[in-house]
Design brief:
about 110 residues; mainly alpha; globular; disordered N terminus
Amino acid sequence: QEEESPFAPAGPACDDMDYEKVLDTYQRLCTKLVPCQGLTPGLREKIAACYREGYTWMRLPWIFIKANESLFLQGDNGRRWQADLEWLLDPAHLRAVEEGKYDTWDRGFDE
């Protein structure tokens, strides 16, 4: 009887992960963020880590759309920093975008 390792990655296996689909989806939906220059080994590992956390390619498009609509992530943040795919694929950042932390609120109020 084989015992499951406590160090096995959580979530689904990455064997069926379509890395190109994730990259193409980001390029298509995140036109206001920094474009990705290619699929590097490091980026593949980040995609795999997200997948293990439950962020499959079926879940990512909605998060990519939310990120693309964020003025802060587009560079309206005082430092003119813009998000890119590598930053976005950090599971903590995906979670923050998904939860609305970077949503753009109406700026019609008195500042």
